[in-house]
Amino acid sequence: MNTWLRDHPWQADGLLAAVLLAFSAPQLAAGTAGVGGRAGYIAVGVLLCAIVIPRRRYPVAAFAVAAAVGAAQVAWGVQPGAAQPPVFALQPNDADLAILILLYTLAAYRPRPVSLTGLAVCLAGAAVAIARWSPAQHAYAGGAIFGAAAGLGGVTLTAWVLGDSVAYRYRRARFSALEERAARLEAERDAQARVAAAAERARELQDRRARAVDESAARLRRIERDLHDGAQVRLAALAMTLGEIKENLAQAGDDRTLALARAAHQNAKDTLTELRDLARGIHPPVLDRGLGPALGILAATSALPVTVTADLAERPSPAIEAMAYFCAAELLANAAKHSGAGQVAVGLREQDHGLLMSVTDDGPGGARLVPGGGLAGLLERVQTVDGRLEVDSPPGGPTTVTVELPRHA
Amino acid sequence: MTTAPTPAPAPAPERLRIVIAEDAAIMRDGLTQTLTRRGHDVVAAVADGEALRQAVDQHRPDVAIIDVRMPPTHTDEGLRAAQAIHRDHPDVGVLVFSQYIETQTAAELFATAPGGVGYLLKDRVADVSDFIDAITRVAQGGTVLDPEVVRQLLSAGRRASTLAALTPREREVLSLIAQGRSNAAIAAALFISPKVVEKHVANIFGKLGLIPDDNDNRRVIAALRYLES
What we know:
The structure holds two protein chains of two kinds.
Chain A: H1 2-7, H2 9-29, H3 35-50, H4 59-77, H5 97-109, H6 112-137, H7 142-229, H8 231-252, H9 255-282, H10 291-301, E1 306-311, H11 318-339, E2 344-351, E3 354-361, H12 374-383, E4 388-392, E5 399-406
Helix pairs in contact in A: 2-3, 4-5, 4-6, 5-6, 5-7, 6-7, 7-8, 7-9, 8-9, 10-11, 11-12
Chain B: E1 17-21, H1 25-37, E2 41-46, H2 49-59, E3 63-67, H3 77-88, E4 93-98, H4 103-112, E5 117-121, H5 128-139, E6 143-145, H6 147-155, H7 160-164, H8 168-178, H9 183-190, H10 194-208, H11 216-228
Parallel strand pairs in B: 1-2, 1-3, 3-4, 4-5, 5-6
């Protein structure tokens, strides 16, 4: 009900005007003047009722009209001393209640200075009215005048206070809504700050991770180079010397020492082979020449026929190249061991801001990512640089493993 | 060489003039001493590709022994230098040796230098006589290819259908052909008569669709190119 009254000001106030008109109707109808005066009298009453309708839309204008009517009534509707008969149309009547309603509206919907002005106007009007009215009617003694003044003033004040209290409640509600909104905004701002801090932290961690990945790749490359320039060379020189010793002993005919030298020589050569495999596992030197040539070598040494289609305009970072290489190596080894495939195709191309590598075999399919499996290990590896790995291996094949990597870690 | 029994070290028929390019001092010095002890003349031992080219220009050696990985990039300077030497001085043999054997490097090397060229795993220096034998063959315009290259190509399973047509014995023979061995050397290595080797060779080239040729080098290149294609 309240909501309806609030949301439909025109209808609600139209209803109020109707009630006021109904309330005033008996008095308006009972007017005793001539036909012209009576019509004016009714018209003023209806005007007063009607002015209530737009009270919420135009509180000040509505009040001003009603106050002007009231002032006119006080001026011409009451004639003290009866030297001249009052204007009948401007006789005060019950519809003057509209003035109070509009004062209430003014207090409820407009700032205090405005409503206080309205209150002052009303109180002044009431005082003037009483002052002029009483002698004109010869109706009241001194005490009665005081009573009328107090009554009219009290009613006026009451209307203002009622309106003002509504305004106060409204202001308080609005204030608390504002407070609530401020609190919400503050909370939102805090949340945004937290999100920004988290994003900043994520960026920082990403940078740090990229550095770690790059450093790790560089370190592996350095280890391989150190092995190549250090241990491998020394061992090869040692094996060469042992080989010479062996041949000298063979010529000298010292069979017992020759057997020892031969064993040592073989040992050195086996160690060289092991060391070479180890170094190549740490960082395949061919990677220094680029991913395309490296994949070509992988393909050439695979147990299956492999075709490589590499199309990269610029080289990714060394860490990413190494990751792609080891993925390809593992996938080719898998294909050779498990897929039952007759041939494999490796594709490498650019995609958005990274590279896309696909390894497709024509085996019967059924490959799956199982926890702890080789593919899961590869997935973990590429995930360290936000890469992706997908397996598409329907029954009957073909099997395609797709690896997406960024250009930089 | 590991696939063949070590032949009795024959005294070098000639004193070879050799340039060594190897950035690791210990290997450079070791090779120099060993080759010198075997009666060869190491006219220069350098540590990078640029110095190598200057040394070859200056000394015109019989053979240059070149490490693939050298400064400044440590990738394939040796290979590039070998190709340049072969272009500028076709009479200088180049033996490229490397810690790793890559079929692609072999293919590149043999594509530009059909003769007087060798590609060996660095480990092979351990078998001194075989190594010096390889150097001698390269110096004389022959071809030396590391067995590892052949092993990789054969195990790669590429051209599987064609290679599958070869018998195990023919594969052995092909492997030795690819290393640049003559029919006589193959016969000695496999303890079979040269006549039988000739028959195997004819069969191999027949099966691979290649025309037999008396020239050892051409046979190797044909085989390598076929396998690499």
